[in-house]
Amino acid sequence: MQNACKARSAIAFEASAFLRALCMPRHAVGGLIFVVLTVLMPLRVAAQDNYEIQVYGADTVEPGSTMVELHSNFTVSGSKVVTDGVAPTNHAEHETIEITQGINSWFETGFYIFTSARNGDGWDWVGDHIRPRFRAPDSWHWPVGVSVSNEVGYQRRKFSVDTWSWEIRPIIDKKIGPWYLAFNPTFDRALHGPDVSRGFEFSPNAKVSFDITPKVALGMEYYGALGPVDSFDRLHDQQQQFFPSVDLNVSPDWEINFGVGVGATHGSDHLIVKGILGRRFSFHHKSGRVRTGTY
After folding, report:
1. Which residue of 36, 108, 153, 214 has the fewest C-beta atoms within 10 A of its own C-beta?
2. Rg of the chain over CA atoms, in angstroms?
3. Cα(243)–Cα(221) distance, rounded to whole angstroms?
4. Strand partners of residue 281
């Protein structure tokens, strides 16, 4: 119980400092932290497993529009042996198709198809997830973008010890001049598999980028998987990855992001190259709403 309190205090401190940096009023910071800790705490977080390596922005796809994205990730240096029945990641190519439909001005639903290819193993279907997401409407005039996504899905036992999982991802972001900041204090829970017994886990993701030109932004992305919220894993066993990245803002209809990730702990894959290519298709006149940062 003491470890759980320490974990909650650490999460609250990090989130509070981030929100104050975004110029959010102190009373609003307290309210949002309360929501995160009391409503979202009973969840578990798993690593992204190198299928969808992305720090989310708070905006949603416009109603009547569809966003189609291809996530391409290649593990240059990863696990080399089968562990607990899970295939190794070394030299594995992961291709993920993400299709997101805008429903209204504050709600969207995304669908994922995960695949993996590795020399000697052929090309495999890994699983599918569905992800509804809500955001704070523009009419609320909040000083930061805020949204919450739920992601539920299945992955084959060959690729994950847990075959069913549920993730809740709060998303907070802010554009300040040429700077863009995003924080995803993610929680998720194994629904079927041995990690159900691990309880709730915490996996913070964050991004900072700077527009060096109107079309090019350089950034740093962070992905962590710290372990159960009541007792974090040893640093040796945690996943800690840092991705220097580039965003190309060539058009409001396109999303282009790529980066090279380095694992900082023994429990992380050591070198990953990742890319995101997305295209928005609109079926009515555009709303003119300005998006903040990388979707």
Report:
1. 214
2. 18
3. 5
4. 66
- CB-based contact 29:20 (threshold 8 Å): yes
What does the alpha-carbon distance between residue 114 and residue 129 come to, in Å, rounded to a whole number? 8
Mean pLDDT of 210-236: 95
Q: What is the pLDDT of residues 103-142, one digit of tens each?
A: 999 999 999 999 999 988 889 999 999 999 999 999 999 9
Q: What percent of the chain has pLDDT over 70?
A: 80
pLDDT in tens, 116-127: 999 888 899 999
**Torsion angle of C-alpha atoms 88, 89, 94, 98, degrees rounded to 10:** 90
Q: What is the dihedral of CA 41, 46, 50, 51, to 10 degrees?
A: -80
For residue 288, being part of any structural domain is answered with no
Encode pLDDT of 168-199 as tens digits: 999 999 999 999 999 999 998 999 999 999 97
4-18, 83-97, 136-150, 200-214: least confident range? 4-18
Helix and strand counts by DSSP (H, E) for the chain: 2, 13
From 15, 11, 13, 23, select the one nearest 174 (Cα to Cα).
Answer: 23
> Any idea what the CATH number is for the domain that residue 192 is in?
2.40.160.40
Has residue 295 been placed in a domain?
no
The 3-state secondary structure of 164-215 reads EEEEEEEEEEEEECCEEEEEEEEEEEEEECHHHHHCCEEEEEEEEEEEEECC
Residue 113 to residue 115: CA distance in whole angstroms: 7
- The verdict on residue 290 lying in a domain is no
CA distance 228 to 243: 24
Closest CA to 4 of 45, 30, 41: 41
Which residue range forms the structural domain that includes residue 53?
Answer: 2-282
Quote the number of domains for the chain: 1
How far, in Å, CA of 259 to CA of 271, rounded?
A: 11
The Cα–Cα gap between 139 and 137 comes to 5
